[in-house]
Amino acid sequence: MFELSKRIQNVKSSPTVALNAKAKALAKTGVNVLSFAVGEPDFPTPPAVVDVAIKALQAGKTKYGPAGGSQEFREAICEKLKSENDLSYTPEQVVVGMGAKEILFHLFMALCNDGDDVIVPSPYWVSYPDQILAQGARPICLPLSPDMSTAPLRVEDIKKAGTSRTVGIVLNSPNNPAGFMYSKEMLLELGAFLKTNNWWIISDEIYEYMAFDQKHHSLLSFFPELKDRYFYVNGMSKGFAMTGWRVGYVAGTGPAIKMVRDLQSHTSTCLPPFIEEAATFAIKQGKNLLAKEIDILNGRRRLAMRLLDGIDHVSYVQPHGAFYLFIDVRKALAASTRYKDQNSMRFCEELLSEHHIAVVPGDAFGAPGFLRFSYATDDKSITEGLARFKKALQQI
């Protein structure tokens, strides 16, 4: 037998997907499991968007579409980028794919060579390091900032991590898993540094509509001179409650964008045209389409923060955006005879098996001793879930 791919052997399965599957399997046995593990809003896709898709299906729009996205959808994306982000792109500089996850995978394929380094600040979305590893490159994961609430990203750490092998950096604001956002001041400091090197800048901004305490800014809007190596990644999953529709896109310039489009033509090929019509309609409505639901999310955020404030031995990163709380349980685990090793993975397994709540261990995000709690669910579940969490902490 031939040896399997060394690159792919380094890739681990997604822990968030695996944990959500465990929670669903336990629930099927009749256990009342409360899951705070999945990264999707609990709101249904807006009915008006669904109606557009149904009409497109009825009109027979079920054939192949163009690789990389239809002209109409890419034009709508360019209009959105101009009006909401102050970014100027042409449709030829936009590629659409099956979710932002696929877009990122193809983008790393286009940008990375064997032995390249890509800087990934911690805490990070679980798929960044593994997608980079799959290309034969190395993810250089930065240490956690001592104060993620006010200074989640430190330029000094980026400078220390950079080497002659560094080809890029991944940015993510609002952040998954911690919910923090890069302030304007931080972006100005970061952009001033990135002007001095020649790295690719991969900016994942998929949670931009879930910005609660401050305005979301794209780094490129402050530093247009970075445009030839900046890639803006977004999608319809979060801000439009369209996770299952699998619509993602990237805007950028130069040969790399053509390479991403070429890769699309050899993998998923295209989005179904009826989905593209629905996505085109949705993106033209903008952030107002789910404004009410995002206000509800903000209320849930405040509820979860208030309840956590009443629990001893834990703290959390100030969540300015997205829909997660990143809970620091290092102090609580250190006070327990069972968890002095700070094993948040084992603690999460106990939370699921004994207390029937599913949260994601911070180990998956480069932050052992933390837990990711998604508040994209109803108030009753949040209240009951955090009551069970408090009880579990008391018992250890």
Short description:
The protein is an alpha/beta fold and 396 residues long. It has helices spanning 6-9, 15-28, 47-58, 71-85, 99-111, 127-133, 155-161, 184-194, 219-222, 255-266, 273-285, 291-309, 330-334, 344-355, 379-395; strands at residues 34-35, 94-97, 117-120, 138-141, 166-172, 200-204, 230-235, 248-251, 315-316, 324-328, 357-358, 360-361, 370-374.
List keywords for this structure.
single chain; alpha/beta; globular; Aspartate Aminotransferase, domain 1; Aspartate Aminotransferase, domain 2; 15 helices; seven-stranded mixed β-sheet
Topology:
Blueprint lengths: L5 H4 L5 H14 L5 E2 L11 H12 L12 H15 L8 E4 L1 H13 L5 E4 L6 H7 L4 E4 L13 H7 L4 E7 L11 H11 L5 E5 L14 H4 L7 E6 L12 E4 L3 H12 L6 H13 L5 H19 L5 E2 L7 E5 L1 H5 L9 H12 L1 E2 L1 E2 L8 E5 L4 H17 L1
Helix pairs in contact: 3-11, 4-11, 5-6, 5-10, 12-15
**Domains (count):** 2
Q: Supply the number of helical segments.
A: 15
Distance between the termini: 49 Å
What structural category characterises the helix and strand content?
alpha/beta
Rg is: 21 Å
| Name of the CATH homologous superfamily of the largest domain | Type I PLP-dependent aspartate aminotransferase-like (Major domain)
Task: Describe, in plain words, how this protein is organized in 3D.
It is built from 15 helices and 13 strands. With 396 residues, the chain is an alpha/beta fold. The model has no long low-confidence stretch (mean pLDDT 94). The chain has 2 domains: 6-44 and 290-395, Aspartate Aminotransferase, domain 1; 47-289, Type I PLP-dependent aspartate aminotransferase-like (Major domain) (Aspartate Aminotransferase, domain 2), CATH 3.40.640.10. A 7-stranded mixed β-sheet has the order 2-8-7-6-5-3-4, sandwiched between helices. It has a 4-stranded antiparallel β-sheet with strand order 9-10-13-12. A two-stranded parallel sheet has the order 1-11.
